[in-house]
């Protein structure tokens, strides 16, 4: 019997070796016993290589401001596993989380379990909309059991190629499986769906215009900095306009929204970003070049196994005077099992401005000896560990 929240987390970690069901069959059996809670609310289903969580968060914030009760299911989390399941931007309570885990009768995979309890929690609380992020791809993702109101495909890049395909075209085809015959959609690669025009990119906000075939929204302030966040906001705006949300509600929400771990400034001189694939790192680097022209960073970097770490380091080298390769050390879902050892990566990429310090706290102490701004990136696990340590 699971007695407390830590035992619940340990139980979930024990499910990590269990492979997913390669489709929706296994989770559908569980949800059927729960009277198919996923059918009790309208869902916005989001896939893509980059920008899924930010886009989901923006949509949920806008819909909440519009007066709806909104469920949000995202992954991974930054600091607390309960961040993955929220209603009106409030994480599920420890009691509800534990009770729903204990109620599971069929042993599912880690992600299947979280998806099942999210749907049950949302149904129990009678939400209006569920904003649901896939785990990986779409075709065989457990969330593809949804009958979506709107399907969204964000930026497409090369990631999880062993599962989704070798080319961007193959990956896009996999992700397009979330588009059902009965749903509307927003697809970022289709440039005619909408356009954004940047006016200003600062360290703590951006300003841009939004255009589509029906609406023009001028001078939008977005308090989530970065070029890539303007793109994510464009997707969120396009989706919310399809749902009838007004321009004023959209503008008012975006002017005050905040999503931690994404180009977040802490302690005045430390920039935190959970970018964890080459496309995300490239977008981060491009944004930092605009926000901090001619600035060089001391970069602390850690990454999971299986990621294109050398490509990421090559991109980061363009804005870094020094790169410190480290590791995230805490047991946070897949982090401990799948982290890439700092020495293993260092031995692959030896260069004069790259050093290795597996202990994150010592890596940070080293970085703080310099006068440069500090950039911490490569993984949301590392971002979460940084916030626990410094905030």
UniProtKB/TrEMBL annotation:
Pfam family, one: Mur_ligase_C
Keyword Nucleotide-binding attributed: yes
Sequence ranges assigned to domain Mur ligase C-terminal in this UniProt record: 261-379
Catalytic activity: (6S)-5,6,7,8-tetrahydrofolyl-(gamma-L-Glu)(n) + L-glutamate + ATP = (6S)-5,6,7,8-tetrahydrofolyl-(gamma-L-Glu)(n+1) + ADP + phosphate + H(+)
Regions annotated as coiled coil: none
GO cellular component: cytoplasm
The enzyme's E.C. designation: 6.3.2.17
Record's keyword terms, sorted: ATP-binding, Ligase, Magnesium, Metal-binding, Nucleotide-binding
Domain (Mur ligase central): residue spans on this chain: 46-183
Gene Ontology molecular function, alphabetical: ATP binding; dihydrofolate synthase activity; metal ion binding; tetrahydrofolylpolyglutamate synthase activity
Assigned protein family: Belongs to the folylpolyglutamate synthase family.
Protein name: tetrahydrofolate synthase
């Amino acid at each position: 019997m699971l007695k407390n929240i830590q035992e619940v987390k340990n139980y979930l970690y024990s499910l990590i070796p269990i492979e997913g069901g390669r489709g929706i069959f296994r989770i559908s059996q569980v949800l059927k016993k729960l009277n198919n809670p996923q059918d009790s609310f309208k869902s916005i289903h989001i896939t893509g290589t980059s920008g899924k969580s930010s886009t989901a968060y923006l949509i949920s914030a806008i819909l909440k401001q519009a007066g709806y009760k909104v469920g949000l299911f995202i992954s991974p989390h930054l600091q607390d596993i309960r961040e993955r399941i929220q209603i009106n931007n409030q994480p599920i309570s420890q009691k509800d989380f534990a009770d729903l885990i204990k109620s599971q009768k069929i042993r599912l995979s880690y992600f299947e379990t979280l998806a099942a309890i999210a749907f049950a929690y949302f149904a129990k609380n009678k939400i209006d909309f569920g904003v649901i992020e896939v785990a990986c791809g779409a075709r065989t993702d457990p969330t593809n059991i949804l009958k979506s109101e709107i399907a969204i495909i964000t930026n497409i890049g090369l990631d999880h190629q062993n599962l989704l395909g070798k080319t961007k075209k193959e990956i896009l085809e996999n992700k397009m499986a979330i588009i059902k015959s009965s749903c509307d959609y927003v697809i970022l690669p289709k440039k005619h769906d909408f356009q954004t025009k940047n006016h200003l990119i600062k360290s703590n906000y951006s300003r841009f215009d939004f255009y589509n075939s029906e609406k023009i929204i001028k001078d939008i302030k977005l308090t989530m900095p970065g070029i890539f966040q303007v793109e994510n906001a464009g997707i969120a705006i396009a989706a919310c306009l399809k749902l009838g949300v007004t321009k004023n509600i959209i503008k008012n929400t975006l002017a005050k929204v905040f999503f931690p771990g994404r180009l977040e400034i802490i302690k005045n001189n430390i920039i935190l970003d959970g970018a964890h694939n080459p496309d995300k790192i490239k977008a981060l680097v491009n944004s930092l070049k605009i926000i901090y022209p001619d600035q060089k960073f001391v970069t602390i970097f850690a990454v999971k196994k299986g990621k294109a770490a050398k490509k990421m380091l090559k991109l980061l080298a363009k804005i870094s005077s020094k790169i410190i390769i480290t590791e995230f050390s805490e047991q946070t879902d897949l982090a401990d099992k799948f982290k890439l050892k700092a020495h293993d990566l260092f031995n692959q990429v030896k260069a004069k401005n790259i050093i290795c310090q597996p202990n994150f706290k010592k890596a940070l102490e080293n970085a703080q000896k310099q006068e440069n701004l500090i950039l911490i990136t490569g993984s949301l696990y590392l971002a979460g560990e940084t916030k626990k340590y410094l905030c």
